[in-house]
Amino acid sequence: MTKTTDFGFESVPEEEKQQRVDGVFDSVADRYDLMNDLMSGGLHRLWKRFTVEQSHVKPGQRVLDLAGGTGDLAKKFAERVGAAGTVCLADINASMLRIGRDRLIDAGYLASAVQCDAQKLPFRPDAFDCVSIAFGLRNVTRKDAALAEMRRVIRPGGRVLVLEVSHVWKPLGPLYDAYSFNVLPALGKLVAKDAESYRYLAESIRMFPSQEELKLMMERAGFDKVDYFNLTAGLVALHVGVKF
Which of 25, 51, 56, 84 is paired with 197 by a 20 to 30 Å CA distance? Predict the structure, then answer.
């Protein structure tokens, strides 16, 4: 029997999801950062700054930023680890990775850029001090496999950080739904010329595990001391797992 997974509210064969996700990001890559600013009112920059602060990364350490897209989080890590450290920007989508690589170079950072699948990382065990993935895990077909790979490639004592749009405080639910399913597609059509990709975004958020469910998934993947922070009334959550 063919295994299926979610693509927004639609159920699709597992092997088809990545192709369709690629289509979404190929379409929106050039306007991705602008749309993030518009959709979040600029708050995504604060969420990412908080993520870097919670990483406890020090100068000279090694960081892998998965689904790193246009490189804004990788740039913050590069500033933190300094010239003696290394940051690897990774993304499965070539269009996004190209933009992120070029922006890091333009900013004066020689971070490596690797096109790879989060479910099958091409790195040795214990290769990094920290692994981050921001707003990318929900697009991964087999999230459990990706979490296991993240744990494999961090050293003992290292941290994995998962920043993701999550389940908002319940009283705000109706307002959030109205915004997600009406404003987001309209904004996507106006700015990115693509309403469907932002309709998928809204649907993919609803299909993503809750804060407690993701915490349990990380514990099942072998992480210790898993905790999470609700940001902006649970609109976004940062999960942190340690490998002992």
Answer: 51
Listed residue (228, 239, 231, 184) closest to 206, CA to CA:
184
Q: Which residue is it, tokens 């979040």?
A: 40
Residues 83 and 40: their CA atoms lie apart, in Å, by: 32
* 59: confidence class by pLDDT, cuts 50, 70, 90: very high
Please state the pTM of the whole predicted model.
0.94
CB 24 within 8 A of CB 17: no
- For 76-103, the pLDDT digits (tens) are 999 999 999 999 999 999 999 999 999 9
Other C-beta atoms closer than 10 Å to the C-beta of 95 total 17
Q: What is the DSSP string of 143-174?
A: HHHHHHHHHHHEEEEEEEEEEEE----GGGHH
What letter represents residue 214's amino acid? L
Helix, coil or strand: residue 80: helix
Instruction: Please tell me the distance from the alpha carbon of residue 3 to that of residue 109, in angstroms, as a whole number.
Output: 41
pLDDT digits (tens, 9 = 90+) for 1-45: 678 999 899 989 988 999 999 998 998 898 888 889 999 999 999
Full DSSP string of 85-129: SEEEEEES-HHHHHHHHHHHHHTT---EEEE-BTTB--S-TT-EE
Q: Check: CB of residue 132 under 8 Å from CB of residue 73.
A: yes
